[in-house]
Structure formats: C-alpha cells, structure tokens
Specification:
The chain has 13 helices and five strands. The chain is of the alpha+beta class. It folds into two domains: 65 residues, 434 Repressor (Amino-terminal Domain) (Orthogonal Bundle); 178 residues, Beta-Lactamase (2-Layer Sandwich). The chain is elongated, with a radius of gyration of 22 Å. InterPro entries: Cro/C1-type_HTH, Lambda_DNA-bd_dom_sf, MLTR_LBD.
C-alpha cells in the first residue's frame, strides 16, 4: 500500500497527479470529465499553472477525493479550506446526533454501531453488548475501537467461528480505505491489528467455511451462550457530505443471516 504524499511547499500539482494515478486515469480522461484540457491538467500537475478553485473542486470530485483531502488540495493551491470539521458533540450537530440515535434504536434487537474514519466507536445500540460479551476490560476503556475490539486476541476474535475469513474481510476493507484516503492513523491501526496473533484454535476447517453455509454473502459467525449466531453486516454513510466529520461517519448494522439468529435476538429485548 502506497500513500499519496508530496514534499512541503510542493504545491497542488503532485497531489493531483497522485490522486489521478491512484484512480488510473490519463490526463485526457480526467480533462474530459472535468471540462478542461489535457494540456491544462499537465500544466497544473507540473506547477506551470495554478488551477482555479472551481476547477480544483471539479477535479477532486471526479477523482473521488475524500472531503478531508479536498481541504488539503485547496490549501496546497493557496485557497482556504472549504469543508469544516465540526465535532459531533457540537450544538450544530444536534439534529444529526438525534437522527443517528433514532436509527440505532430502530435497528434493535439487532446490533448496530457508528464509527468514524479510524473505527473509533461513537455510538451503539443496546444489542451491541451481546457481541462484546467476554471482551477484556482494557479493550473497553474509551475510546473504543471497533477493529481492535473485533480482532484482538482478547476481544471478540476468540468467539468468531469463521475468524480467518472474517479477519481477511476486515483487513481488505481497511486496505481499500487506505487506498482512498491519506490517513496515517488508519494506516497505523491497520499495522497494529494485522499483526495480532490468531487466538489458539482459530482455524477454519471445512465445516466452518461460512461461504458454503451462506453463499449469498459472507457472514460473521459468533459463538454466544452455547449457540452460533450468524450476522450479515451492512455499512451506511451520508450522501454528499459537506463536513469532514460527517463524511467519515459510518453506521454498521448487523442483520440476522438465518431465522434462528433473528428469533433469538428478538427474544432478548422486550
């Protein structure tokens, strides 16, 4: 995995070139999408021309540059950042917080949580406690981290029946995110959790191949109270975010993958 970087003071050109190459677009392809010319894109990338703010934002949009990194492009080009980064507990975020809390509560009795761009847990519903049964106390000290909780040998990992499959899925998910954003904290988290040793006995045998049991999607199979609960995971994000904080929020919801799991979860809450 490589990171898009440029030397301090190098300007916006190397950053744009890095994003374009990451998206595997030619200068001509990008120019056509952004209503510019390949010549002008070349001049911008080599520092011979300074892009206007409107063009820079169009380029960022067509390169699918994350909101946080769009601010970095603007700064490198000599413009003020356009997108604020508002703390989630700010009074201006009250409507968003209430909406998220309603969604989490409405998903019960199935587990759901909200994380930021580095998987820090910001909110969760009551059923998430079920998945955290037996997790070591030191992992439950705030701020909680969903990846750390899941993959640490003293976390949820020992109870995940198809751990090797689920671990590979999560690490690949992080790799895709690192490819999209220049996040050193996310990269550091990846290096940490990918180095965790597998808990003793965590070997998926033929009978534990979840893809054979659930061919439509890979589930997380977790042992709980003498039974195995099977979950499908979905992730939701906000469309067209205009704030860095909002752009990095993700709600992960766990749906029962079979009738038995659904019936058991419904029996837990009144």
């Amino acid at each position: 995995m490589t990171m898009i970087t440029s030397a301090p003071g190098a300007g916006v050109g190397p950053l744009l070139r890095g994003w374009r190459e990451r998206r595997r677009l030619s200068q001509l392809e990008l120019a056509l999408r952004a209503e510019s010319s390949a010549r002008h894109i070349s001049f911008v990338e080599t520092g011979r021309a300074r892009p206007g703010q409107a063009l820079l934002l169009r380029l960022a949009e067509h390169l699918d540059v994350p909101v946080r990194e769009r601010n970095a492009l603007l700064l490198a080009a000599g413009y003020a950042p356009l997108y604020p980064e508002t703390p989630l507990d700010d009074p201006s975020m009250e409507a968003l917080r209430e909406g998220v809390e309603r969604l989490l509560a409405a998903h019960e009795p199935y587990p759901a949580l909200v994380v930021d761009g580095t998987y820090r847990v910001l909110a969760a519903n009551r059923t998430m406690a079920l998945l955290l049964d037996g997790v070591a106390e030191h992992l439950l000290v705030p701020p909680l981290n969903a990846m750390r909780l899941t993959l640490h040998p003293e976390g949820v990992a020992p109870r995940i029946v198809n751990l090797r499959q689920w671990r590979e899925h999560l690490l690949q998910q992080m790799e895709r995110q690192i490819a999209l954003a220049r996040s050193e904290p996310l990269r550091a988290l990846y290096e940490e959790v990918s180095a965790y040793p597998l808990p003793e006995g965590a070997v998926d045998g033929p009978d534990e191949d979840a893809s054979q049991l659930f061919p439509f999607a890979l589930p997380m199979r977790i042992a709980y109270g003498g039974r195995v609960l099977n979950f499908l995971s979905t992730i939701a994000t906000f469309n067209t975010p205009m704030d860095v904080t909002v752009s990095e929020l993700a709600m992960e919801t766990f749906l029962p993958a079979d009738p038995e799991t659904g019936a058991f979860l419904r029996s837990l809450l009144p």
